[in-house]
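P.,

For your records, the input lines for the assembly:
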Amino acid sequence: MKKLILLVIAMLLLALGCSKQEENSKTQPVAADKDSSTQIKAGFIYVGPVGDAGWTYAHDQGRIEMEKLPFVEPSTYIESVPEGAESARVITGLVQKGANLVFTTSFGYMDATLDVARRFKDVTFMHCSGFKSAENVGNYFGRMYEPRYLSGIVAGKMTKKNVIGYVAAFPIPEVIRGINAFTLGVQSVNPEAEVKVVWTQTWFDPGVERDAADSLLDVGADVLAMHQDAPATMQAAEARGAYVIGYNSDMRKFAPNAFLTAPVWNWGALYTKVAQQVADGSWESSAIWWGMKEGLVELAPMNPKVPAEVKALVAQKAAEIKKGTLHPFAGPIKNQQGETVVAAGSIPADGDLLGMNYFVSGVQGTISN
Amino acid sequence: MVEILLDATVRAGTPILFATLGAIINERAGIINLGIEGLMLIGALAGFAATSLSGSLLIGVIAAFVAALLAGSVHGFITVQLRGNQIVSGLALTMFGIGITALFGRSMVGLTIAGFERLTIPGLSMIPVIGKPFFNQDALIYLSFVLVFAIAFFFYRTRWGLALRTVGENPAAADTCGVPVNLYRFLAVSIGSGIVGIGGAYLSLASTPMWIENMSAGRGWIAVALVIFASWSSYRALAGAYLFGGITAMQLRFQAMGTTISAHILQMLPYIFTILVLVISTVRLAKGASQQPESLGQPYDREDRK
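Structure tokens returned:
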């Protein structure tokens, strides 16, 4: 009998929790319609939980910022949606619930997004990190390599042993581009330093990420960088007295001493803009690849331990990137084998950057295609 | 190098070891528990929340044990008292664990605590090669060593252990001898679940002191498979958990050292190993060496005559 009561209490708690969540999404103020603009009811599909403190968390912060617009109704989001065909059902569900603007925030939703978009012509779809589009489907991503390059400058200046470790998820162009930009940043101030790469083959497994970070510290790395969704690398660096560069969002509280800075996403800048365009009818399908200039990506504030001269240098380089006078991948660039891949004086086209499949010299590790 | 590798092996293997030991206790009593993944998450969150609120790691570990024990007792109630389907109930427990920890863990994301520190055991830690990896670890790892021996001792050296094994092999026979079958089964499921919870707490209190949704990342399922590999023995569970942890640790370190072996081949190692293990245990099964409790997965009803 006691257990039965326990069970009932558990169910009640569950019901309470669920209703609370619904309430949350309804508390957003719904302001009056402005001028001629349509009300925006947005839906978001997330690949991970909003509690991941990383990728999905950053997108959700963007969603919350977008909701501050007067013509944006409380939005709906669905977490931990598996990539692939299954996601089409979830996207359709969002549209049927009344969403007229849908953001699908992971590469693996690309084909499902296009499939659903074909059936709902009056709904606007935005797919993150893909390369396909349609009349009512735009795609978007950020030039994360720009702040990665800047974070490389910080790492190159702060390393004493000239060994920098990089905990990386999967050998795909996005990650490889980040490693290369970071390494070019390191080498621009410290040609002696080497970047060692360890692949974890997972976006999200704190235990494995921690172990990978430890393995890099074991071979002598004194600064770590990472392309993962959990902050485990931060903790490894903190525990061993090394420095660390974060990713996705400002994660300094996980490593108050070790944290130097982090290249971070600011999706709010883009989501606000897209919502405005859809509302006033000016939206057109395009491939958006925004950088630091547009404010989609940036470098988190630096640790006070970083010397003022390094901060000044980074600020100067950041200004040059925003002005367009500095491009991290401007030639000459050599690959690991010493062959020139980008000729002196030339800048690779966006297509080449998006399909990057080689490591630049200075990276120690293999891509193994 | 060997020392570092062993050290990483022990640390990666410990959460899986706790989970496997808990699962073995469940299955020795004849109850399959597929809720391990959910129980680990419940333990991880309860441990982290309690430590974060009280500031005490000990309270965290106790909270993890109790929370997972309570969640496991629901599985026990359904499968033992109600004689419900063990597979369905276990899967439901995993889904419940993932959901409820995500819900109640929201406010815990981003909080930080001071995790378990290493405690050097004087003398033993001086042994060359194995001293440091095994005796310069944190308190939970020492607890896992003790548990491995305690569980083996309990199963084979005590009356209650004998009774519990009988309950798993032939509950009717145990019942005839006056063993309270349902009580044994219920307690085994509950306490076993509590131990799984400590495995979860190892993740959130020692390995990576933080709470993140779904942070067990499939380790519970590895434990479910390791129970078969370990053929329901706590010593072999230790070997299995460390082998699995060791292969993960090794392939990461090979990469860090800059070996020219493809990362993809290194990444395959744990899975090649899993297949090998399955082949070996199947061959042993064919030879009649199975240790599987005879009435595993079958509900017991005294009135039911076979």
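Two observations worth noting. The first helix of chain A runs from residue 2 to 26. The first strand of chain A starts at residue 42 and ends at 45.

Regards
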